[in-house]
Write a structure and sequence with these properties.
Layout (H helix, E strand, L loop, with lengths): L5 E6 L12 E3 L8 H5 L7 E2 L2 H19 L12 E8 L7 H15 L2 E8 L4 E3 L11 E4 L4 H10 L7 E7 L4 H12 L6 E7 L17 H15 L4 E3 L4 H5 L18 H13 L5 E3 L7 H10 L4 H6 L21 H14 L19 H10 L5 H4 L11 H22 L62 E2 L1
Parallel strand pairs: 1-2, 1-4, 4-5, 6-12, 7-8, 7-10, 8-9, 10-11
Antiparallel strand pairs: 3-6
Length: 485
């Protein structure tokens, strides 16, 4: 617990009379989104959701709750935690040692923590009564955030002559109405049938204690919910659209190694998730169709699909907590996603009418840390060894195949700096981008300074060796009687 970095939990629907010593009880009741609200995304199908998908969602909820309850500042290094978690499932036998090993690697990649996961029998299976009228089935499930990437994909998807599309959206309460408006405006871009189900990701704070703000495991919760819906609808595709710059999200400083940068749809993470689904007996596959595109190229796809620019300006990309945004706006202007957003909109449209709280070059030193880190990163050569310094790639995918999109993204960011930062600002004083010597279809990259290029830094690491603790043996649970929702 506090000061030790060790946290222990067990996840049950009901609190048992004899709980394990030193463990905290977690349940689905800790989520503001009541179970019936999440599971209603499949109520039109009826019948029983495959148990493997039910259990995957239970694990994802348990992990997310444990993540939120475990403050990183209570650890010796103020980041790395050791989390022990036992989850009650319907079919724990599916979660053998190989499946738990994949899950542990997945959680380590997402959070950079040490996880000790076990499973127990006793969860009650979800059974849905068949709908009386109006039943339908989706052919594709997609995650919709209201950001540029998911909005661009929706704008393209609704123009295709395919079967129904189901959108799963986790939201912050303060921006829900904005996301709802973006969905309504975008779905009218085509005739394809769509259904939209927003879900709250808020955690109940029963004891009025602070919750961990980093929440690196939320990506697993989002994708497990979409997989749950796909399994219920007998769909085999879950789409998680994100541009290659942020999907790969290479560490721009040593302090952003591993889970210090969010990588929910990194190719390695998606490969581990898909491997886990197969180990559990599922056929659903999660994919990112925009891995090879920069933010600017995604914006161009939205434009070419006919999406109105005013809708694009209203999309939400900021990663700063709402409390950090001033003036009631949706974008701080200085976090890394805001910077990438701005570079992409400028590359695609030559303008950006988003309302930002501050200009990244003209704010407090602490607020400018991402912009300063990005400036230094763009002044250094970027190599394939840097790409795999803290996160490996799945078999069949090479670092060299991902370098083109990252280099194009770097050029978009360099161009943003040079377009926006005033000539009299000291933000780019003595700065020269490392790609200044390159010429390609976009022409040469100009520089603000005649200073020599900084000495290249050494690669961060050549190998990735995550800590993978061995799973422990489970302890027994309670009743297994099914219930009807």
């Amino acid at each position: 617990m506090k000061g030790t970095g060790v946290f222990r939990y067990y996840y049950r629907s009901q609190q048992p009379p004899n709980e394990p010593p030193g463990h905290q009880w977690l349940s689905e009741k800790d989520l503001f989104a009541a179970e019936s609200r999440i599971e209603r995304v499949v109520s039109s199908v009826g019948g029983q959701v495959p148990v493997w998908a039910q259990d995957l969602l239970r694990v994802a909820r348990a992990v997310y709750l444990a993540d939120k309850r475990s403050l990183r500042e209570w650890t010796p290094d103020r980041w790395t935690r050791r989390i022990t978690l036992d989850v009650q499932l319907v079919e724990p036998e599916r979660w053998d040692e190989s499946a738990l090993d994949v899950l542990t690697k997945l959680l380590t990649a997402l959070t950079s923590d040490m996880w000790d996961i076990s499973v127990s029998r006793g969860a009650i299976p979800d059974i849905f009564t068949p709908p009386l009228v109006g039943g339908w089935s989706a052919d594709e499930i997609m995650l919709f955030s209201g950001g540029i990437d998911s909005t661009a994909y929706l704008a393209e998807a609704v123009t295709r002559d395919d079967g129904p599309l189901l959108l799963i959206s986790y939201y912050e309460q303060k921006i829900k109405s904005c996301i709802d408006d973006i969905y309504e405006a975008t779905r009218r871009n085509g005739a394809r049938r769509t259904e939209y189900h927003p879900i709250s990701a808020r955690v109940r704070d029963w004891q009025k204690t602070r919750l961990e703000p980093s929440s690196r495991s939320r990506g697993l919760l989002f994708m497990a919910t979409a997989v749950y819906a796909a399994a219920a609808h007998r769909a085999v595709t879950v789409t998680a659209p994100e541009n290659g710059q942020l999907a790969i999200n290479p560490a721009i400083t040593e302090s952003r190694l591993g889970a210090c940068s969010s990588r929910s749809v990194h190719p390695y993470v998606l490969d581990l998730l898909n491997t886990l689904i197969r180990r559990l007996g599922g056929e659903v596959r999660v994919s990112n169709p925009y891995t090879d595109l920069t933010k600017g190229e995604v914006c161009e796809r939205a434009r070419d699909a006919g999406l109105d620019r005013e809708v694009i300006w209203r999309t939400v990309s900021c990663s700063s907590p709402p409390i950090m945004r001033r003036n009631g706006g949706y974008h701080c202007g200085y976090c890394f996603p805001c910077l990438v957003r701005r570079s992409g909109l400028l590359a695609a449209f030559g303008e950006d009418r988003t309302g930002y709280d501050v200009e990244f070059w003209n704010t407090t030193r602490s607020a400018k840390k991402d912009a300063h880190a990005l400036r230094r990163w763009l002044a250094r050569p970027f190599r394939t060894t840097d790409l795999i310094a803290d996160m490996p790639l799945p078999a069949g995918l090479t670092a060299s195949s991902l370098m083109p999109v990252l280099r194009r993204g770097r050029r978009e960011l360099i161009d943003m700096f040079q377009r926006l930062v005033p000539a009299d600002s000291d933000f780019l004083q003595n700065w020269r981008p490392a790609d200044a010597h390159r010429r390609d279809a976009h022409g040469p990259v100009t520089t603000r300074s005649a200073q020599p290029v900084p000495k290249p830094r050494q690669p961060l690491r050549d190998e990735y060796r995550p800590a993978v603790p061995r799973p422990r043996q489970a302890w027994s649970g309670e009743s297994t009687q099914p219930r009807t929702l």
